[in-house]
Design a protein that fits this description.
This protein is an all-alpha fold. The chain is built from 6 helices and no strands. The protein is extended and about 65 Å long.
């Protein structure tokens, strides 16, 4: 057992102490985690962004075009000075505009167009598939898609046949939310099991 393992185990116990109630040990570990994370990503940003893309190009390559993005980035820090805070809005507007221009097409492609393409299928089964099972899967997908869309169609009152069909969409939504919640719980339990194995195995040696 080395010193780093002991420190990691003690900090893990500090975090777990929140299960009893909020206490100074948990606050210490929480603040330490936030501080170390900020410091780590700050160093990574300096090493991967400022040094190769600003300092090296400016000092070694004499590329003065980097002055413009450097000043634009420095304007964001003007928010720390009340008199100059308005200048930071220029840099923030550029960052938000460019970010939106990059994110919106990527989001449309990944979450909308790809999902639409997945629902445009043929009911003719491929050669290497089980025919009735393939058709059944497509029927379930079509039923779930149309019934969920019917549930979110609020221009028509949910009564009669339409209301019954929209109610089927709620069952598909409950299945989706239940599966998502179950996946989240399983991932958190996996993290908990890994931490317990670290405490009992790597630290105390009970599992070795």
């Amino acid at each position: 057992m080395d010193f780093s393992t002991t420190v990691a185990a003690i900090l893990s116990l500090f975090i777990f102490s929140f299960l009893y109630r909020d206490n100074p040990f948990y606050k210490f570990a929480e603040h330490l985690l936030v501080g170390v994370s900020v410091g780590y990503f700050l160093v990574i940003s300096i090493d991967n962004v400022l040094v190769p893309k600003i300092a090296d190009r400016l000092l070694r390559q004499n590329d003065w075009s980097v002055i413009v993005p450097l000043l634009a980035g420095a304007l964001i820090l003007a928010r720390l000075i009340p008199k100059w805070s308005r200048w930071s809005q220029l840099a923030l507007a550029v960052v938000i505009g460019v970010g939106a221009g990059v994110a919106i097409p990527a989001t449309l492609q990944a979450q909308i167009l790809t999902q639409m393409k997945a629902t445009m299928f043929s009911f003719i089964p491929p050669e290497n598939s089980i025919g009735w099972l393939y058709i059944l899967e497509r029927i379930v997908i079509l039923l779930g898609l149309t019934s969920v869309l019917a549930y979110f169609f609020f221009s028509k009152e949910h009564r009669g046949v339409f209301g019954t069909y929209a109610r089927i969409g709620t069952y598909f939504l409950m299945i989706f939310f239940g599966a998502t919640f179950g996946y989240t719980v399983m991932s958190r339990l996996s993290l908990l099991i890994g931490r317990i194995q670290f405490l009992l195995g790597d630290w105390l040696g009970f599992l070795n």
